[in-house]
Amino acid sequence: MSPIVDSHDVYPLTPGEPFLARPDFKLMESCGQRPCWVKLNASPDQASTVATDNWPYEDGFGHRYGDYLQVVCQTRGATVNDESGSSSNIWDRVIARADKVPAAAQPFLQSAQGSPGFYAYAPDLLLGNSGDHQLPC
């Protein structure tokens, strides 16, 4: 099954190249009050240390706002499911802005090279759902 991709949530889509993506909860209606935010993790597993709190936000109302993240590479990790029954074990390694990472989470993260931020992981299924870009970590 091909991923459901909103062209406004992910760009560019060039295999093997870093890209920008933003959270997308179209198939996660139970997230509650909209817009929702995706938890960034210290490793590709939702049970790992949460690297951010209340950031990054999705474009929940079609107004084309929302927080884009730089995806630097992709890896495989714990499987994540959405409410439509889709699942993926693709995790995007992203750069989390330093001002959005609580001090308590910083010791669990690696500093991003050449950027004032930290590397963290987000499930691709919830970050644009663009699938495998042949961009290994």
Structure report:
- The chain has 137 residues and is mainly β.
- The chain has one domain.
- It is built from no helices and six strands.
- The N terminus is likely disordered.
Find the structural class using helix and strand composition.
mainly beta
Q: Rg to the nearest angstrom? A: 14 Å
Please tell me what the overall shape is: globular
Biggest sheet layout: 6 strands, antiparallel
Low-pLDDT regions: 1-6
Q: How much strand content do the residues show?
A: 25-35%
The tally of helices reads 0
Proportion of residues in helical segments: under 10%
Short structural description:
With 137 residues, the protein is mainly beta. 0% of the residues lie in helices and 28% in strands.
Set down the secondary structure blueprint.
Elements: E1 10-11, E2 19-21, E3 69-81, E4 87-97, E5 110-111, E6 117-123
Antiparallel strand pairs: 1-2, 2-3, 3-4, 4-6, 5-6
Features:
single chain; 137 residues; mainly beta; six-stranded antiparallel beta sheet; 28% strand; disordered N terminus
